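Response to reviewer comment R2.3. The reviewers asked that we include at least one raw input/output pair. We reproduce the pair for NAD(P)/FAD-dependent oxidoreductase here without editing.
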Amino acid sequence: MTSTTRTRTRTRATAVVVGGGPNGLAAAALLARAGLDVTLLESADGVGGGTRSYEALLPGLLHDHCSAIHPMAVGSPALRELELERHGLRWLLPEIDCVHPLDDGTAGVLLRSVAETARLLGPDGDRYRALIEPSVRQWDALAGEVMGPLLRVPSHPLLLARFGLPTTLPATALARLFRAPQTRALWAGIAAHAFRPLGRPLTSAIGLGILVSGHAAGWAVAEGGSQSIADALEKALLAYGGRVETNVRITGHRQIPAADVTLLDLDPGQAARIYGDRLPARTRFAYRRFRRGPGAFKIDLAVEGGIPWTHDKARRAGTVHLGGTLDEIARSERDVTAGRMPERPFVLVGQQYLADPGRSVGDVHPVWAYAHVPYGYTGDATEAILRQIERFAPGARDRITGLRATTPAGFAAANANFAGGDILTGAKTVPQLVLGPRPTLDPYSTGLPGVFLCSAATPPGPGAHGMCGAGAAASALRYLARQ
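Raw output as returned:
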C-alpha cells in the first residue's frame, strides 16, 4: 500500500471479522495494524478456535483442545510480522521432534537437525538429505511461497519449483525413494497428516511442508498451551486498536455490523448459510458442494510417570506416530476416507509436557492422542487408541489415572468449522488443496464485494500459522485500495 492509501484506510475503513480462531485473529490483527477500525466477533466465550487449552482431568494439568504441535507456525510469516513474542508467546522445543515406532522395536526418528536425522536414517540418509536440505536452507525465502495460494506468480520461482515438484507425487510413490521400513514408516506418518489415502496425487505436499518447516524452525509447542497463541494474537489485535466481542453467534448476514470489509473465519458451508442468495450463484454452488474430510477422535490422558514406550527415543519425543508400517498406514487411511473404521487406526500422540514441563502436575503428565476416523463417526474409538499405545508401550494402561474423550460430534460442538470431526476444515483433495473452496485466482474472495473467507478451508490450509487469515487480509486491503 502507498502511504496515501495507508492514511486513508486509517481514517475511514472498517472491518468485521467473524470467528476468533488463529486465522480470524491473524486477519483482524493485520488489518488493525494496517490502520483499519476492526471488530472481531466470536461465538464462544473466548477466542482460540482449535488453539484452545484447558485443565481437563486435574487442576493444573494442561491439555490442548486440538492444535498442539506447531512446525508450520513457528516460522509463519504472519506470526512473525505480528511479533507475538512481544505479547507473551514463547516457543519451546522438545529434545526429539517425532518418533515412529515399529513392532520389531526399531523406529524412524526425526530430529531438528537434517544432518542428525539423516545419520539416524542410515542407508536412506543421503537421499533424505538431498530431498529436504536445499529447501530447509532457503526456508526464510520459501515460507511465504509455500504458505500461500498456489495459483499466483511466485517471487522465487526456482526455489518453489525445487520444493514443489516432489509434492505433486502420491506419498506412496515418494516413499519408494527410501529403502528402510523405518524411514518409509516415518514418512508415511508425517504424510498422513493430510487425512487422505496416501496413493492419491499431492499427498506428499502437506508432509513435505511439515518436514521442511520443522527442520527449519522445530516441532515447537507454545509455552502454557496452544491457547497462548490465541492469547498473543488477541493482545496484538487490541494493541493495534481492535476490539473483540465474544458470545456473538452469527446465523445470518443481517447480524453482521456494516463494514467496508467482512472476513469470515468460517467453513464454506457456514458462509453459504449466512449469506444465502446474496452470494453469486457459482460461489454458493461451490461452497455447498465443498467436500469434508475424515474425522478425529481424541483422548486426553493423565499418565503417571509418562508413557513407557519400548523405544527409548519415543520417551523424549514431543510427537509419537502410531500406525505401523507404510502399508498399514496407507490401508487405514484408505479405510477412513471410505467411511470404514479400521481396527488399527493411525494415531498421533502429543507429549507437549516434555518441552513445557509446566503443563504437568508432579509426576502426572498430560498426554494428547487422537485417531483418524471416518467423517461423522459415532462409535467409540477409545479402545482402539489405547490398543495402539499399548502395542508400542506395554503397561501404559496401568499408568493412566484419568481419561477424557472428544468425539467427532464433540469437536463439531466446540467449533462449527470442525463438522463431522473434520479438524482440517475440508478434505485436502487435489482441487481443494490447489484452488481452495472454489475455482478462482483469489481463493479468499467470496465473489461478494468486500466479503472474504479466511478459514483453514483456504490456502495454505490447517494449522496455527495464521496464513489463511493473512492471505484474506491482503485480499481485503487490495480491495480497499481499488475503492
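Residues 1-10 have pLDDT under 50 and may be disordered. The radius of gyration is 21 Å. Further pairs are available on request from the corresponding author.
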